[in-house]
Amino acid sequence: MNATTIGFIAVGVVLFVDFALLLGLVALKTVHRRRAERHRLRRARYVATLSRHLASSTHIEPIDGGAADDDAFLDAVIDLRNVVTGHDVETLTGIVDSLGLARIQEARLRSRFPLGRRLRAAVSMAEIGDESTARVLIEYLSDPEPEIRIQCARGLGRMQHTAAIDAILERFGLEEPWVRARFADTLVGFGAKATWPLVAYIRVNLSHDENESVIEAIRVLGTIGDREVGPTLSGVLRVASDPEVQLATIEALGAVGGPLAIPPLKHTFRSADWRLRAKSAASLGHIGDPSINLVLSSGLVDSNWWVRRNSAAALASLPGGSGLLLDTLESEDPFARDAATEALADCGALAAAREREDAGVATADDRRLLDHVGAEETVLA
Amino acid sequence: MIYDILSWAGYATLVYFIVMQAYMIGLGLRSAAVMRRVHHLDRFGRVSEMLSSQTSPPVSIVIPAYNEATGIVDSVRSMSIVGYPRFEIVITNDGSSDETMKALIEAFHLERVRIPYRPDIPTAPVRGIYRGHGAVDITVIDKENGGRADALNAGINAARYPYALCTDADVILDANCLVGAMRRVVEDRQRTIAVGGNIRPLNGSRVELGHLIKAGVPKKLVPRMQVLEYLRTFLASRPAWSRMEALPLVSGAFGVWKRSAVIAVGGFSSGHMGEDMDLTMRLHRHHIDNDIPYRIVYEPSAVIWTEVPETLRVLKRQRIRWHRGLMTAVRDFMPMTFNPRYGKVGMVTWAAMFLFEYLAPIIEFVGWITIPTALLLGALNTTSLVLLLALAFGIGLLNSLLALLLDESYGYFNSRADTIRLIVMALIENFGMRQITVVWRIRALIGGKGTRAWGNMERKGVANLGAGT
Q1: Domain range for residue A232?
Q2: Which of A183, A347, B70, B331 has the most neighbouring CB atoms within 10 Å?
Q3: Residue B464, pLDDT score
Q4: Does residue A12 fall inside a structural domain?
Q5: What are the residues whose beta carbons fall under 8 Å from the beta carbon of B303, sequence distance 6 or more?
Q6: What's the half-sphere exposure (Cβ side, CA atoms, 13 Å) at A308?
Q7: Which residues have CB under 8 Å from B197's CB, separation 6+?
Q8: DSSP B354
Q9: How many domains does chain A have?
Q10: pTM of the model
Q11: A60 lies in a domain?
Q12: Distance CA A71, CA A46 (A)
């Protein structure tokens, strides 16, 4: 075979592939368009039928047995499941059970279907599943596909199946960050029920070298905001040597709040590490106890810029803090002055000063603030 | 002797073109595998759960604005409803000579404030800082003119959050673009320093009040050619590069950057015509040289829409500017090219940028001269030449069709008219359009007057784009 023949064959093959792709593209677009239109129509019909069932207990319009296998029916059920309440939920659940919808989705989840179909089954079970499907969802928390694990956890969270908390926490340390973040969302959804399992998880895993899952667990505790975990978090702060764990704990203490959270935060506010000082300032501001005004005012002259900024912002949120910030306008440090001004603007003191000036009743402090804001001297680049 | 040289040069040019297209197809096939997964996750993965998550990292949207008075307010309004739990908008007015600043102050009731602006990256002097306290936090940095890179740097300096989405004032963000991009950050918060997004031409689409109502393919050939180009680039190349974690470019129109990483390398380079490529490559170099684990990735589901040039005159200016940016980057990062120390970036993606982007116009231009000359002198076999040209056309078409197939997972272009327009474009772009862009890139290589200025884009503006554009 000479080069010209090879050339002809190569051109022929490439042009044939081009033609096949072209046909494939046209066919795919046509099929997609028609399938989407048909899906929309069927979904609308199912929504109408299901709505009639919900509207009248005597209305017995049979639902086609094949509907349970139809994705459009599934979408219609999910649409309605997200809007109905009370007795209608029970009616809808009854229809779903009678058609064996959950069993079909379970079979799909267990099958060797491609990712798309299994993922759809997991999403459906998360949306329409009840206590009877919890066992399957817990089992599939260890599925090799991350998104399926996420959907299973979401479903368990939606049905508030508390037995799943331990199962989720068992996977917590093994998961990749994306899945762990979604598991964290699920745990937050459990609220106070997840508090003590999380505390136990932190206590057991804190000494390990890998602290990422502990950090996430601490963040979850902070977001749940149960004050009873204050002493636990203080204990973590005492023993933790990893700054990332300390930072997460400081943030969680700020979110949890309460008088028990203040002493450990005051301590970390004097830390040698500026990150801990800055985070402590923000957390003390969240707690909002005016007894710490003087502590925070020492942060306005801190050697680190972020500590000064966070201290100013924290003071702005505390009763009596504005006075200390106004005093800072006389500071020699231009960044401290600007941090104080920013905090006063954010808390509405600047807008109030402007209003009083417009009304002709501005105080000396108002003028001090407005003069500083209007000053042309620049500390900028 | 001269016959042999001409003959070989002619064949070499065509073989080079075929190898380049084959590389593109290889990338396309790899991208197809990545896109298939992305498609499933988009459909059923419920990425939007991040919207209600209280642990999603906050983001600063940084927008440089220069003489954008007509469209800036609509753009900012459309951006302010992007779906994400916590974000702020930082606009840098880069010394506009029109009423950009006035439009912003009036529309968002901005007040001049003094905030502790810290120039982590040096910029042109800042004249003032304004802030609005509406539903979304808006900060405006009013500074003296210093160019796009300088404006972005000022915005990054003022940003309060650890990640900055750097974009343009004339784009439309898809509602889920930020969630899509930040998902990649959450996947690996420690290592992810940049995420690129999927940029799509807005021309031909229906836009109302700064929002995309219906995507469409433009009737005019110039923007339609760019639709195909963007599809090839963003669907058939970047997913594969991203999979290798060797993305050589995070496009300036949409890039989420880790603020601390950008500051560590000194921010965007002022005056650089390809500041996005320059920053991406400097980040690669900095992290590899210092053995810092990192990754720069691309997220196809993070979609934004931008207006592309409608006339050859404006397109010419844009392409000359892009190629000059590439030339500067090739010069600056030459030690990384084919350097195994830089792993897949040095040996694969940046090497390919050098071979198939930087050298392409030179080699193609040489081909234009040698092939006809060789044919006239009888140094080239006509049959072989026709076969090679047919092969080159066939592979080029294959590459475009592959991109169109990948785009089907989005379903943006559904009408018959749009499908026909795109297929016709894929068939005809090799006859004239492609050659024009080569001439422009050669012009950029030669340099001289007219190739060093940015020039005006002459946009209609997001607010003024209508159906059938």
Answers
A1: 162-268
A2: A183
A3: 53
A4: no
A5: B174, B176, B177, B180, B197, B198, B200, B410
A6: 23
A7: B177, B180, B181, B251, B253, B254, B255, B256, B298, B299, B302, B303, B304
A8: I
A9: 3
A10: 0.85
A11: no
A12: 11
CATH of residue A183: 1.25.10.10
Q: What is the CA radius of gyration of chain B?
A: 23
Q: Looking at residue B95, what is its pLDDT?
A: 92
Distances (CA, A) of B176 to A92, A354, B294: 31, 39, 25
Query: Per-residue pLDDT for A52 more than 60?
Result: yes
The ipTM of this complex is 0.79
Distance CA B13, CA B22 (A): 14
In chain B, where the domains are located: 21-57+162-350
Q: Which residues of B touch A176 (CB under 8 A)?
A: 187-188
Q: Which two tokens stand for residue B334?
A: 């030459």
Question: What architecture (CATH level 2) is domain B21-57+162-350?
Answer: Alpha-Beta Complex (3.90)
Q: Looking at the structure, do residues A127 and A156 belong to the same domain, yes or no?
A: yes
Same structural domain for residues A203 and A156? no
Q: In this predicted model, what pLDDT tens digit does every residue of B373-412 receive, in sequence order?
A: 888 887 777 887 888 888 888 888 998 999 999 888 777 8
Q: What is the pLDDT of residue B370?
A: 83
Q: Are B121 and B266 in contact (CB under 8 A)?
A: yes
Do residue A15 and residue B390 have CB atoms under 8 angstroms apart?
yes
Any alpha helices (H) in B120-236, and if so which ranges? 148-158, 177-187, 221-236
B154 to chain A: closest CA residue: A381
Contacts of residue A380 in chain B, CB cutoff 8 Å? 117, 119, 125-126, 129
**With an 8 Å Cβ cutoff, are A223 and B55 in contact?**
yes
Question: Rounded to whole angstroms, what are the CA distances from B406 to A29, B34, B35?
Answer: 12, 10, 7
Tokens describing residue A146: 């991350």
Contact residues, chain A, for B55 at CB < 8 Å? 181, 184-185, 188, 216, 219-220, 223
Q: Same domain for A218 and A261?
A: yes
Which token pair is B5? 């040289």
Spell out which residues of chain A touch residue B183, defining contact as CB-CB under 8 Å. Answer: 178
Q: Which of residues 208-267 of A touch B (CB under 8 A)?
A: 216, 219-220, 223
Q: For chains A and B, count residue pairs whose Cβ atoms are closer than 8 Å.
A: 161
User: Which residue's entry shows tokens 């620049």?
Assistant: A378
Please name the helix (run of DSSP H) or strand (run of DSSP E) that holds residue A124, with its range, or none. helix A115-128
Contact residues on chain A for B408, CB-CB shorter than 8 A: 25, 28-29, 32
Last residue of a domain, one of A206, A233, A268: A268
Q: Identify whether residues A335 and A366 lie together within a single domain.
A: yes
- Measured between CA atoms, the residue of chain A closest to residue B184 is A178
A378 in reach of chain B (CB within 8 A): yes
Q: Which residues have a Cβ under 8 Å from the Cβ of A11 and sit 6 or more positions away?
A: B387, B390, B391, B394
Residue of B nearest to A7 (CA): B387
Chain A touched by B290 (CB under 8 Å)? no
Check CB contact under 8 Å for A15 and B387.
Answer: no
Does the beta-carbon distance from B405 to A17 stay under 8 Å? Answer: no
Do residues A9 and B390 lie in contact, with contact meaning Cβ atoms separated by under 8 Å?
no
The answer to whether A10 faces chain B, any CB pair under 8 Å, is yes
Show which of A111, A129, A161 is a domain's final residue: A161
Closest CA to B158 of A325, A338, A352, A345: A338
Q: What is the pLDDT of residues A128-154, one digit of tens each?
A: 888 888 999 999 999 999 989 999 999
Q: Is B389 on the interface with A (CB under 8 A)?
A: no
Q: Between chains, do A185 and B49 touch, taking CB under 8 Å as contact? A: yes
Domain membership of residue A4 (yes or no) is: no
Alpha helix (H) ranges present in B72-218?
72-80, 100-108, 148-158, 177-187
pLDDT by residue (tens digit) across B197-239? 999 999 999 888 778 888 999 999 999 999 999 999 999 899 9
Residues A141 and A91 in one domain: yes
